[in-house]
Amino acid sequence: MEELKDGNWERECIEEDCNANEAYEVVDDEEQGDRLFDLLNDCKEKHNTRESQSNCVENGMPAVTRNEKQDKVSAESSLQTPVNCGPDYFRPGAEWPLQNMLVGAQSGKTVRLCQNNYGKDHYFATLFNTDTNLPVYSAIKISRTKNGKSYPRPDKFIPANSGPKPRPKSVWLKMCKGLCGTNTPPSDTSFYCNLDEVKSPNECD
């Protein structure tokens, strides 16, 4: 962990290309090394500049170094990681449209979510209303390729004895942990969603 704080991963794996064995040496742990190597590849695939790659890895480090046998990191502070994802999904000068123009049922406090799975980089953006707990809109850039990746929705069966009533297979208990806690970043600051599993639809931990 001390080596991570010293930034050795950046020297070894961002400024230069590293293999899995070198990633293990950075964290001195085989399991964490696997997670770091996957994170590095994910960030390098998504970003072209060294700075953006480093920021991507920084956000993913809590997932790399956490002990799976311990409770997950508290959402109130460490999971509300600011990141400027607007330029990746909106036209220049037209980022996060309509945020200050919502009326009627859509009015209320809104936040700028950079949607990502916990420990991974963002892949689309959402303007989210925290008063109604509903998204106002989402934005994403897509390209169609014949042999492109596909991401099927999780399809777990949830039995009746695990909650008040059975849930359809299409319903899955995940939540943006960046929204947990009593405070969220200012409305003009975008931050990672950090989608992760929760115990019930009403719980953040």
UniProtKB/TrEMBL annotation:
Record-annotated Gla domain positions: 1-42
Keyword annotations for this protein, in alphabetical order, are:
Disulfide bond
InterPro entries reported for this sequence: Coagulation_fac-like_Gla_dom, GLA-like_dom_SF, GLA_domain
Task: Spell out the PROSITE patterns in the cross-references.
Answer: GLA_2
- Say which domain of life the source belongs to: Eukaryota
Q: Say yes or no: keyword Disulfide bond present.
A: yes
What's this protein's name?
Answer: Oidioi.mRNA.OKI2018_I69.chr2.g5010.t1.cds
Organism, scientific name = Oikopleura dioica (Tunicate)
